[in-house]
Amino acid sequence: MSRNFLKMAETMKSELVGIRRDLHMHPELGYEEKRTSGKIKEFLKSLGIEYRETAGTGVCAIIRGNGDKTIGIRADMDALPLQDKKNTVYSSKVTGKMHACGHDAHTTILLGVAKILNGIKDELTGNVKLFFEPAEETTGGAKVMIKEGVLENPHVDRIIGLHVEENIEVGNIGLKFGVVNAASNPFSIKIKGVGSHGARPNMGIDPVVMASHVVLALQEIISRELPPVDPAVITIGTIHGGTASNIIPDEVTISGIIRTMKTEHRSYVKKRLVEITEGIVGSMRGKCKIDIDESYPCLYNDDNAAKAILKAAQQVIGNDHVKILENPSMGVESFAYFSMEKPSAFYYLGCRNEGKNIIHPAHGNLFDIDEDCLPIGVAIQCQTAYDFLK
User: Fold this and answer.
1) Which residues are listed for Mn(2+) binding in this entry (predicted)?
2) Using CA atoms, how far apart are residues 22 and 302, in angstroms rounded to an integer?
3) How would DSSP label each residue in 144-186?
4) Does 24 show up as a binding residue in the annotation?
5) Is residue 160 a contact partner of residue 309, using CB atoms and an 8 Å limit?
6) What would the pLDDT profile of 174-192 be if each residue is shown by its tens digit?
7) What is the distance between the alpha carbons of residues 56 and 37, in angstroms, rounded to a whole number?
Protein backbone atom coordinates (compact mmCIF):
# COMPACT_ATOMS: atom_id res chain seq x y z
CA MET A 1 0.00 0.00 0.00
CA SER A 2 1.31 3.47 -0.86
CA ARG A 3 0.48 6.60 1.10
CA ASN A 4 0.24 10.25 0.13
CA PHE A 5 1.93 11.62 3.23
CA LEU A 6 2.05 15.18 1.94
CA LYS A 7 -1.74 15.20 1.56
CA MET A 8 -2.11 13.72 5.03
CA ALA A 9 0.22 16.35 6.50
CA GLU A 10 -1.51 19.21 4.67
CA THR A 11 -4.82 18.28 6.29
CA MET A 12 -3.29 18.99 9.69
CA LYS A 13 -1.41 22.15 8.70
CA SER A 14 -3.45 24.46 10.91
CA GLU A 15 -2.74 22.18 13.87
CA LEU A 16 0.97 22.19 13.07
CA VAL A 17 1.04 25.97 12.79
CA GLY A 18 -0.76 26.26 16.12
CA ILE A 19 1.74 23.98 17.87
CA ARG A 20 4.71 25.76 16.35
CA ARG A 21 3.46 29.22 17.29
CA ASP A 22 2.72 28.14 20.85
CA LEU A 23 6.25 26.79 21.21
CA HIS A 24 7.69 29.88 19.54
CA MET A 25 5.95 32.17 22.02
CA HIS A 26 7.25 30.18 25.01
CA PRO A 27 10.94 29.43 24.33
CA GLU A 28 13.07 27.62 26.90
CA LEU A 29 16.84 27.20 27.09
CA GLY A 30 18.71 23.92 27.30
CA TYR A 31 17.63 21.62 30.15
CA GLU A 32 14.95 24.16 31.09
CA GLU A 33 12.42 22.80 28.55
CA LYS A 34 9.85 21.75 31.15
CA ARG A 35 6.88 23.44 29.48
CA THR A 36 7.97 22.21 26.07
CA SER A 37 8.41 18.60 27.18
CA GLY A 38 5.12 18.86 29.05
CA LYS A 39 3.35 19.84 25.83
CA ILE A 40 5.05 16.97 24.00
CA LYS A 41 4.01 14.42 26.62
CA GLU A 42 0.46 15.77 26.65
CA PHE A 43 0.26 15.39 22.87
CA LEU A 44 1.70 11.86 22.92
CA LYS A 45 -0.61 10.84 25.74
CA SER A 46 -3.63 12.05 23.77
CA LEU A 47 -2.62 9.65 20.97
CA GLY A 48 -1.93 6.74 23.29
CA ILE A 49 1.79 6.74 22.39
CA GLU A 50 4.04 5.41 25.12
CA TYR A 51 7.02 7.50 26.16
CA ARG A 52 9.64 7.93 28.82
CA GLU A 53 11.59 10.88 30.13
CA THR A 54 15.29 11.03 29.36
CA ALA A 55 18.20 13.46 29.70
CA GLY A 56 16.29 15.53 32.24
CA THR A 57 13.80 17.35 30.04
CA GLY A 58 14.06 15.07 27.00
CA VAL A 59 11.42 12.62 25.81
CA CYS A 60 11.77 9.26 24.05
CA ALA A 61 8.55 7.86 22.59
CA ILE A 62 7.83 4.72 20.60
CA ILE A 63 5.20 3.72 18.07
CA ARG A 64 5.12 -0.08 17.96
CA GLY A 65 4.40 -1.67 14.62
CA ASN A 66 4.50 -5.30 13.55
CA GLY A 67 8.17 -6.26 13.61
CA ASP A 68 11.54 -5.71 15.27
CA LYS A 69 13.09 -3.31 12.78
CA THR A 70 13.27 0.18 14.29
CA ILE A 71 13.94 3.66 12.93
CA GLY A 72 14.60 6.67 15.14
CA ILE A 73 13.57 10.23 14.26
CA ARG A 74 15.07 13.12 16.19
CA ALA A 75 13.98 16.70 16.92
CA ASP A 76 15.62 19.24 19.22
CA MET A 77 13.62 21.45 21.58
CA ASP A 78 15.70 24.26 23.08
CA ALA A 79 15.82 27.96 22.28
CA LEU A 80 18.57 30.59 22.40
CA PRO A 81 19.35 33.43 24.85
CA LEU A 82 18.35 36.13 22.38
CA GLN A 83 15.76 38.91 22.31
CA ASP A 84 13.07 38.37 19.69
CA LYS A 85 12.67 41.54 17.59
CA LYS A 86 10.13 40.21 15.08
CA ASN A 87 6.83 42.02 14.85
CA THR A 88 4.46 39.03 14.65
CA VAL A 89 1.52 37.76 16.67
CA TYR A 90 3.64 34.78 17.73
CA SER A 91 6.84 36.59 18.76
CA SER A 92 8.48 35.35 21.93
CA LYS A 93 6.75 36.31 25.15
CA VAL A 94 9.84 35.55 27.21
CA THR A 95 12.34 38.38 27.56
CA GLY A 96 15.79 37.45 26.34
CA LYS A 97 14.81 34.03 24.97
CA MET A 98 13.89 33.14 21.40
CA HIS A 99 13.50 30.18 19.07
CA ALA A 100 16.06 31.65 16.70
CA CYS A 101 17.18 28.33 15.23
CA GLY A 102 13.93 26.61 14.34
CA HIS A 103 13.81 23.97 17.06
CA ASP A 104 10.16 24.84 17.61
CA ALA A 105 9.56 23.79 14.00
CA HIS A 106 11.56 20.58 14.45
CA THR A 107 9.54 19.60 17.51
CA THR A 108 6.28 20.43 15.72
CA ILE A 109 7.25 18.33 12.72
CA LEU A 110 8.07 15.32 14.88
CA LEU A 111 4.73 15.60 16.66
CA GLY A 112 3.04 15.65 13.25
CA VAL A 113 5.00 12.54 12.29
CA ALA A 114 3.90 10.89 15.53
CA LYS A 115 0.24 11.55 14.81
CA ILE A 116 0.32 10.27 11.24
CA LEU A 117 2.44 7.18 11.80
CA ASN A 118 0.58 6.23 14.95
CA GLY A 119 -2.62 6.34 12.93
CA ILE A 120 -1.28 3.74 10.49
CA LYS A 121 0.90 1.71 12.87
CA ASP A 122 -0.79 -1.52 11.76
CA GLU A 123 0.87 -0.99 8.36
CA LEU A 124 4.36 -0.61 9.85
CA THR A 125 6.51 -3.71 9.84
CA GLY A 126 8.60 -2.34 12.67
CA ASN A 127 8.84 0.45 15.22
CA VAL A 128 9.38 4.20 15.18
CA LYS A 129 11.24 5.85 18.05
CA LEU A 130 10.79 9.58 18.53
CA PHE A 131 13.68 11.45 20.13
CA PHE A 132 12.90 14.91 21.54
CA GLU A 133 16.35 16.19 22.47
CA PRO A 134 17.08 18.94 25.01
CA ALA A 135 20.07 21.30 25.07
CA GLU A 136 21.18 20.93 21.45
CA GLU A 137 22.51 24.49 21.47
CA THR A 138 24.78 23.94 24.47
CA THR A 139 26.22 20.60 25.53
CA GLY A 140 24.00 18.32 23.43
CA GLY A 141 21.32 16.23 25.09
CA ALA A 142 21.86 13.50 22.50
CA LYS A 143 24.88 12.02 24.23
CA VAL A 144 22.97 11.85 27.51
CA MET A 145 20.00 10.21 25.80
CA ILE A 146 22.30 7.64 24.21
CA LYS A 147 23.97 6.93 27.55
CA GLU A 148 20.52 6.40 29.08
CA GLY A 149 19.73 3.71 26.50
CA VAL A 150 17.31 5.28 24.02
CA LEU A 151 18.92 3.33 21.18
CA GLU A 152 18.02 -0.02 22.74
CA ASN A 153 14.88 -1.91 23.81
CA PRO A 154 14.13 -2.13 20.97
CA HIS A 155 17.42 -1.79 19.14
CA VAL A 156 17.46 1.17 16.70
CA ASP A 157 18.68 0.34 13.19
CA ARG A 158 18.67 3.79 11.58
CA ILE A 159 18.15 7.44 12.62
CA ILE A 160 17.05 10.45 10.59
CA GLY A 161 16.82 14.14 11.40
CA LEU A 162 16.32 17.53 9.79
CA HIS A 163 17.00 21.22 10.30
CA VAL A 164 15.15 24.16 8.81
CA GLU A 165 17.39 26.20 6.52
CA GLU A 166 16.87 29.89 5.81
CA ASN A 167 19.04 29.80 2.70
CA ILE A 168 16.87 27.20 0.93
CA GLU A 169 13.53 28.30 -0.52
CA VAL A 170 10.45 26.73 1.03
CA GLY A 171 9.30 23.68 -0.95
CA ASN A 172 12.87 22.41 -1.35
CA ILE A 173 15.34 20.43 0.72
CA GLY A 174 19.12 20.23 0.75
CA LEU A 175 20.92 16.91 1.22
CA LYS A 176 24.66 16.41 1.65
CA PHE A 177 26.39 13.05 1.23
CA GLY A 178 29.40 12.28 3.41
CA VAL A 179 30.46 14.79 6.06
CA VAL A 180 27.72 17.32 6.82
CA ASN A 181 28.89 19.30 9.85
CA ALA A 182 32.17 20.05 11.54
CA ALA A 183 33.45 18.83 14.88
CA SER A 184 34.16 21.48 17.50
CA ASN A 185 36.65 21.82 20.32
CA PRO A 186 36.38 24.94 22.48
CA PHE A 187 39.65 25.77 24.22
CA SER A 188 41.19 28.18 26.70
CA ILE A 189 44.83 29.09 27.19
CA LYS A 190 46.05 30.80 30.36
CA ILE A 191 49.48 32.37 29.86
CA LYS A 192 51.45 33.33 32.98
CA GLY A 193 54.28 35.81 32.99
CA VAL A 194 55.67 38.30 35.50
CA GLY A 195 54.03 41.68 35.89
CA SER A 196 56.00 44.93 35.90
CA HIS A 197 55.85 48.64 35.21
CA GLY A 198 55.11 49.44 31.58
CA ALA A 199 58.23 51.62 31.47
CA ARG A 200 60.46 48.74 32.57
CA PRO A 201 59.44 45.67 30.52
CA ASN A 202 62.83 44.10 31.15
CA MET A 203 61.83 43.63 34.77
CA GLY A 204 58.91 41.39 33.83
CA ILE A 205 57.86 38.60 31.47
CA ASP A 206 55.12 39.97 29.24
CA PRO A 207 52.14 37.59 28.75
CA VAL A 208 50.52 40.03 26.29
CA VAL A 209 53.41 39.64 23.86
CA MET A 210 53.41 35.88 24.35
CA ALA A 211 49.66 35.76 23.70
CA SER A 212 50.11 37.81 20.51
CA HIS A 213 52.67 35.35 19.17
CA VAL A 214 50.43 32.40 20.06
CA VAL A 215 47.38 33.87 18.30
CA LEU A 216 49.29 34.39 15.07
CA ALA A 217 51.11 31.06 15.19
CA LEU A 218 47.92 29.05 15.72
CA GLN A 219 46.52 30.34 12.42
CA GLU A 220 49.42 28.73 10.60
CA ILE A 221 48.22 25.26 11.63
CA ILE A 222 45.32 25.70 9.23
CA SER A 223 47.12 27.56 6.46
CA ARG A 224 50.34 25.53 6.45
CA GLU A 225 49.80 22.16 8.09
CA LEU A 226 46.43 20.92 6.80
CA PRO A 227 45.55 20.15 3.18
CA PRO A 228 44.10 23.30 1.58
CA VAL A 229 41.19 21.29 0.15
CA ASP A 230 40.01 20.26 3.64
CA PRO A 231 38.18 23.00 5.57
CA ALA A 232 39.15 23.75 9.16
CA VAL A 233 39.05 26.82 11.38
CA ILE A 234 40.76 28.06 14.53
CA THR A 235 39.01 31.12 15.90
CA ILE A 236 40.28 33.15 18.83
CA GLY A 237 37.16 34.67 20.35
CA THR A 238 38.44 36.37 23.51
CA ILE A 239 41.65 37.81 24.95
CA HIS A 240 41.55 39.04 28.53
CA GLY A 241 44.39 40.54 30.52
CA GLY A 242 45.66 43.71 32.11
CA THR A 243 44.17 46.56 34.07
CA ALA A 244 45.94 49.70 32.79
CA SER A 245 47.92 50.91 29.80
CA ASN A 246 51.14 51.36 31.78
CA ILE A 247 51.09 48.03 33.59
CA ILE A 248 52.39 44.76 32.19
CA PRO A 249 50.02 42.13 33.63
CA ASP A 250 51.14 38.81 35.01
CA GLU A 251 48.47 36.80 33.21
CA VAL A 252 46.50 36.73 29.95
CA THR A 253 43.71 34.30 29.03
CA ILE A 254 42.81 33.39 25.45
CA SER A 255 39.74 31.40 24.46
CA GLY A 256 38.60 30.11 21.11
CA ILE A 257 37.28 27.18 19.17
CA ILE A 258 38.61 24.60 16.72
CA ARG A 259 36.35 23.32 13.93
CA THR A 260 37.42 20.42 11.74
CA MET A 261 35.79 18.16 9.16
CA LYS A 262 37.84 15.01 9.62
CA THR A 263 38.47 12.98 12.75
CA GLU A 264 42.19 12.75 12.01
CA HIS A 265 42.42 16.52 11.56
CA ARG A 266 40.64 17.04 14.83
CA SER A 267 43.27 15.02 16.68
CA TYR A 268 46.14 16.66 14.81
CA VAL A 269 45.02 20.26 15.39
CA LYS A 270 44.53 19.67 19.11
CA LYS A 271 48.00 18.16 19.40
CA ARG A 272 49.64 21.00 17.46
CA LEU A 273 47.80 23.69 19.42
CA VAL A 274 49.37 22.33 22.60
CA GLU A 275 52.83 21.91 21.06
CA ILE A 276 52.92 25.38 19.52
CA THR A 277 51.55 27.17 22.56
CA GLU A 278 53.88 25.42 24.99
CA GLY A 279 56.81 25.98 22.64
CA ILE A 280 56.24 29.71 22.22
CA VAL A 281 55.44 30.41 25.83
CA GLY A 282 58.32 28.30 27.10
CA SER A 283 60.79 29.97 24.76
CA MET A 284 59.68 33.36 26.07
CA ARG A 285 60.14 32.31 29.73
CA GLY A 286 56.47 32.02 30.53
CA LYS A 287 54.16 29.24 31.64
CA CYS A 288 50.79 28.15 30.30
CA LYS A 289 47.77 26.04 31.13
CA ILE A 290 45.75 24.70 28.19
CA ASP A 291 42.25 23.23 28.36
CA ILE A 292 40.61 21.74 25.26
CA ASP A 293 37.02 20.56 25.53
CA GLU A 294 35.59 17.62 23.62
CA SER A 295 32.47 19.08 22.07
CA TYR A 296 30.36 17.84 19.14
CA PRO A 297 31.93 15.31 16.75
CA CYS A 298 31.71 15.46 12.95
CA LEU A 299 28.32 14.62 11.52
CA TYR A 300 28.58 11.98 8.78
CA ASN A 301 25.66 10.93 6.62
CA ASP A 302 25.51 7.21 5.96
CA ASP A 303 25.20 6.67 2.20
CA ASN A 304 22.29 4.24 2.38
CA ALA A 305 20.38 6.36 4.87
CA ALA A 306 20.97 9.49 2.78
CA LYS A 307 19.83 7.70 -0.40
CA ALA A 308 16.65 6.66 1.41
CA ILE A 309 15.90 10.28 2.30
CA LEU A 310 16.67 11.31 -1.27
CA LYS A 311 14.20 8.76 -2.64
CA ALA A 312 11.51 9.68 -0.11
CA ALA A 313 11.92 13.42 -0.73
CA GLN A 314 11.74 12.96 -4.49
CA GLN A 315 8.50 11.07 -4.01
CA VAL A 316 7.04 13.78 -1.76
CA ILE A 317 8.19 17.02 -3.45
CA GLY A 318 9.64 15.91 -6.80
CA ASN A 319 13.16 15.58 -8.17
CA ASP A 320 13.53 19.26 -9.01
CA HIS A 321 13.03 20.29 -5.41
CA VAL A 322 15.79 18.14 -3.94
CA LYS A 323 19.15 19.93 -3.94
CA ILE A 324 22.34 17.92 -3.51
CA LEU A 325 24.70 20.10 -1.45
CA GLU A 326 28.37 20.19 -2.38
CA ASN A 327 29.87 21.81 0.71
CA PRO A 328 29.59 20.85 4.37
CA SER A 329 28.81 23.36 7.09
CA MET A 330 31.42 24.57 9.56
CA GLY A 331 28.63 24.75 12.12
CA VAL A 332 28.12 21.93 14.60
CA GLU A 333 25.09 19.74 15.19
CA SER A 334 24.46 17.39 18.11
CA PHE A 335 22.71 14.92 15.78
CA ALA A 336 26.34 13.93 15.18
CA TYR A 337 26.25 11.93 18.42
CA PHE A 338 23.50 9.77 16.93
CA SER A 339 25.38 9.48 13.64
CA MET A 340 28.41 8.14 15.51
CA GLU A 341 26.29 5.31 16.93
CA LYS A 342 23.96 4.23 14.11
CA PRO A 343 23.64 4.59 10.32
CA SER A 344 22.05 8.03 10.12
CA ALA A 345 21.17 10.84 7.76
CA PHE A 346 20.41 14.51 8.29
CA TYR A 347 19.05 17.01 5.79
CA TYR A 348 17.98 20.65 5.49
CA LEU A 349 14.36 21.71 5.06
CA GLY A 350 13.90 24.96 3.13
CA CYS A 351 12.05 27.64 5.11
CA ARG A 352 12.99 30.81 3.18
CA ASN A 353 10.42 32.98 1.42
CA GLU A 354 11.58 36.32 0.06
CA GLY A 355 8.03 37.26 -0.85
CA LYS A 356 7.09 37.09 2.83
CA ASN A 357 10.39 38.74 3.89
CA ILE A 358 11.43 35.52 5.62
CA ILE A 359 15.09 35.94 4.81
CA HIS A 360 16.84 36.51 8.12
CA PRO A 361 19.66 34.29 9.41
CA ALA A 362 19.35 31.73 12.16
CA HIS A 363 20.69 32.83 15.55
CA GLY A 364 19.51 36.35 14.69
CA ASN A 365 16.81 38.50 16.32
CA LEU A 366 14.59 38.48 13.22
CA PHE A 367 14.74 34.79 12.34
CA ASP A 368 11.48 33.22 11.22
CA ILE A 369 10.28 30.37 9.00
CA ASP A 370 7.69 30.04 6.28
CA GLU A 371 5.29 27.67 8.01
CA ASP A 372 4.48 26.06 4.65
CA CYS A 373 7.60 23.98 5.34
CA LEU A 374 5.97 22.18 8.28
CA PRO A 375 3.77 19.72 6.31
CA ILE A 376 6.66 19.06 3.92
CA GLY A 377 8.95 18.14 6.79
CA VAL A 378 6.28 15.88 8.27
CA ALA A 379 5.65 14.14 4.94
CA ILE A 380 9.33 13.48 4.15
CA GLN A 381 10.00 12.10 7.63
CA CYS A 382 6.91 9.88 7.40
CA GLN A 383 7.79 8.64 3.91
CA THR A 384 11.36 7.84 4.90
CA ALA A 385 10.29 5.90 7.99
CA TYR A 386 7.46 4.14 6.16
CA ASP A 387 9.76 3.02 3.35
CA PHE A 388 12.42 1.80 5.75
CA LEU A 389 9.93 -0.32 7.66
CA LYS A 390 8.05 -1.54 4.61
Assistant:
1) 101, 103, 137, 163, 363
2) 34
3) HHHHTTTTTTTTP-EEEEEEEEEEEETT-EEE--EEEE-EEEE
4) no
5) yes
6) 999 999 999 999 999 999 9
7) 10
All structural domains of the chain with their residue ranges: 5-181+298-389, 185-292
5-181+298-389 and 185-292 in the same fold = no
Checking phi first, is residue 357 left (phi over 0); if not, alpha (psi -120 to 50) or beta? Answer: left
C-alpha to C-alpha distance for 128 and 125, rounded to whole angstroms = 10
Query: Is 101 annotated to bind ligand?
Result: yes
Contact status, residue 23 vs residue 99, Cβ threshold 8 Å: yes
In this structure, the chain runs to a length of: 390
- C-alpha 371/C-alpha 346 separation (Å) is 20
pTM over 0.90: yes
Tell me if 363 is assigned to a ligand binding site: yes
| 169 labeled part of a ligand binding site | no
CATH architecture of the domain formed by 5-181+298-389: 3-Layer(aba) Sandwich (3.40)
Q: List beta partners, residue 133.
A: 76
Judge: domain 185-292, CATH 3.30.1490.10.
no
pLDDT tens digit sequence for 235-264: 999 999 999 999 999 999 999 999 999 999
